[in-house]
Structure formats: structure tokens, C-alpha cells
Amino acid sequence: MKTFKLILLFAAVAILHSCSKKSSEDFESDFSQYREYITSFTSGVISTHADIGVGLAFDKKEWQLNQELDSDYYSISPSVAGKVIYLPGNMIAFKPDQPLKSGTEYRVTLHLSEFIDLPKELKDFNFIVKTLEQDFMVTTKDLQSYSKDVQFLNAELRTSDYIDATTAKKLVRAEQDGRQLAIRFDEKLASQTEFPFIIDSIQRQEEDSNIKIIWNGKPFDIDREGSEEFTIPGKNNFKVIGIDVSLADSQVMYINFSDPLKKEQNFDGLVSVQGVSKLKFSVDGNLLKVFFSDALTGNLLVEVFQGIESTDGYKTRETYSTKVLFEQLKPEVKFLKSGTILPGSNNLKLNFQAVNLSAVDVKVYRIYENNI
Fold first, then answer.
1. Three-class SS state of 114
2. ∠ CA(293), CA(294), CA(297), 5° rounding?
3. Cβ count within 10 A of residue 371
4. What span, in angstroms and rounded, lies between the C-alpha atoms of 226 and 228?
5. Mind listing the pLDDT tens digit for each residue in 77-95?
6. Can you give the pTM of this predicted structure?
7. What is the pLDDT of residues 93-119, one digit of tens each?
8. Is the bond leading into 119 cis (omega within 30 degrees of zero)?
9. What would the mean pLDDT of 250-274 be, rounded to a whole number?
10. With b meaning 16 or more CB within 10 Å and e meaning fewer, what string describes 171-198?
11. How many angstroms separate the CA atoms of 301 and 185, rounded?
């Protein structure tokens, strides 16, 4: 009998707990009822480094831009430490002191009644945001040579969300025959989600050998680990390692060789791309860059015939054939950095990246000193 009563007690507690936790639909406010007071709000999946903000449809003349406001204007669950700031565009934003936890749903309440008079039923505006699940991938690129005996491998680490360079460096390592290989990250070319790096000082042996690339995000609460073996061709094995198409521009194809290529040679007739008659070539160490006059699409047959010569006088002895996928990226233009400060100068540069666009119109608006 006592056991039965305990089961009923636990069942009652479970029901009460489930009722106390509102569903997403029950928690979120109906935005249409707040259009007189709110113009926009943060929603959907956001970065762990993002602010959480609400655009107001009214002015608060007593607030100054970038002024820190009462932190009680916002309530967030799970609890997050941070500041509430009044930003340009009539935006009241919550700025976390530390990055938010990845892959987490946050229930946010803006207590509108704390700074404006409005109907009682509209005193709180509730909404939900979810942070990105942090993940990453490691991709190998081209193998290059310092000499006949020592090589290095270009590679890249990409993350799904912002991560600091110090953590990125700890996610990957490499070894050869049990010996730890040096890894050098290029911080000048890195962004907050893309980190180019070099696996350095690879010893090239007489016969083909392997290096092992290992990655592990578990110590940093990232559910990703694994490894990959990359083949290093032997000293007397001059050949094609692989073919890749530039992600930034589908009109460039990279053919990676095991040794540096002799520049003073005619590549016409030694490389064939299905359906393409005119090719242009450029040598960059172990890479042969192939350029096309017209953009290519589809899965095309690429053949690299025997007879291409290395700087040591070796020639490829076999024809390399493979299908290569050419894709056209959607037209896009973006700034290379999130912000740029232009000093007073007669030579100002604002760098941006364009893909599949023949021209870009740029408008520059001057903000006068008395408006800052």
C-alpha cells in the first residue's frame, strides 16, 4: 500500500513539474499585439557571441546612445550575466559578459512596463532564441615542398560559430611515425570561423608514407573528434596527388603534384578538361593552377597526361584521370571584416569580396562630426 502511495506522489510531482514548464508556444508573446511598441527583436538561431536586442517603436529622449540601462529591464533563462545598453536605431540590447552556451535555448523577457506605460496584458514581451551548436571540420589542401626531403601541408580548420584563435590551435595536432609535427596557424588570414594552418616539417621518405592528422573538441565541450591519414609520396614518385576547385571562384582548378613543377614548360595538351578548348596555366610550387575563359558547371572529366616535368627533371609516367565537380556560387558581396576604420588620408581603401558579379555599386555616406 505504501509503495502505491509513493508511486502516486511521484506521478503528481512529475505532472506539476511538466505544467510549470511552459511550451515554446505558450511562452512566446504574440508579436502582432506589440507592433505599436516594438519594431523588431532577435530571433531564431544566433551566435554565442551575439547580443539579444529589441527594436523600439518609440523614442526615449532621456536615454543617451550607448548608455547602460537598468539590468532588470531583461530577464533571461537560463540566467546570464550582462549589461543592458541603448544602441543606435532605437535598440535596447542585452550584452552578455561572457559568450552564451552553445546549443542552448534561452527564454528572454523584456519588461516593457519598467520604462513605458502600456496595457497590463502587454507589460512583458517574451521571445526565444537558440544558440548555434559549436562544431568544426578539418580539411587538407595542397602539399608543398621546402626541399626534396622536407615538405609541408596546407590545411584549414572551420567552425560553425565564432571561436578564439587560442582554442582553435588546441583542436588539431599531427604526427609522423609517432613524432609530433609542428602546426603553424596563420592568424593574419584567420577569421573567427576560418583558421588556415600549416602542418610543418614533414619528412619525405624514399617510399610512400603517411602522416596522421588528429582532432578533438571534447576538452572544449565540442562533440567532435577523429583522425585522417594523408599520404606523402616517396622521393622518387613524382605524380599527381589530387585535384581541387577553388571555393571562391569556380573558374580556377588546382592540380597538386608531389614535387615542385618546372615553370619553363608548355602545359598545352598535357591537361584536358571535358568540353573546354582553351586553358591557361600558372605554377605555384607544387600547384598547377588552371584557368578557364568561361565558367564551368557539372561533373567533368579531367585528365593530366604523362610528361609534366618537375624542377628536378623527373616526368610523370602515368595519366591521371578523375571526374571533377564544378559549381557556380550564388552572387554575393561582403566586407572582409566586420568593421573598418578609415583614417584621414587621400588614399582610403575599403576591402570587400565579390563572387559571380560583373560589377558592384558602392555608395559612401559622410557622417559629419557634429552628428557623432
1. helix
2. 140
3. 6
4. 7
5. 999 999 999 999 899 999 9
6. 0.75
7. 999 999 999 999 999 999 999 999 999
8. no
9. 92
10. bbbbebeeeebebebeeeebeeeebbbb
11. 35
